[in-house]
Fold this sequence. Notes:
Mean pLDDT: 80
Amino acid sequence: xxxxxxxxxxxxxxxxxxxxxxxxxxxxxxxxxxxxxxxxxxxxxxxxxxxxxxxxxxxxxxxxxxxxxxxxxxxxxxxxxxxxxxxxxxxxxxxxxxxxxxxxxxxxxxxxxxxxxxxxxxxxxxxxxxxxxxxxxxxxxxxxxxxxxxxxxxxxxxxxxxxxxxxxxxxxxxxxxxxxxxx
Length: 183
């Protein structure tokens, strides 16, 4: 009897091993399928592209830069925005001031993409910011995350060469006046 029990235990063990292998194979297949659709899931934004453009005194676009900024919880904080404005304020020896700031947030869901393709004028994805404040970036489909941008436009400041104060020299003026004589 002992021999038969051992065979049954070993056959049960082998059945459990095959069940475990089956379960892992099933999970692997689902993971493979989900990788193909990973681009179409809506997730939180972690990075945005920053485009910086410089305009000279003649209102001509004279220079441009590009960088990537990391954001936290889908929000570009005011302090980080001010830090980047100060960082890109100078080009060479020229100083520029911020003229305009725009953000592009492609936050359409899967159902709205067809409508957007047919009639893109109905959707307002570009926002103009008149004040320096925190900017919210809504969750985006993974495939379109690279479209989320921030544009900064800087204008050259007119430099004044006479930054000295005007000196006023006070002197005593000697006036020679004739007195009228009393008679």
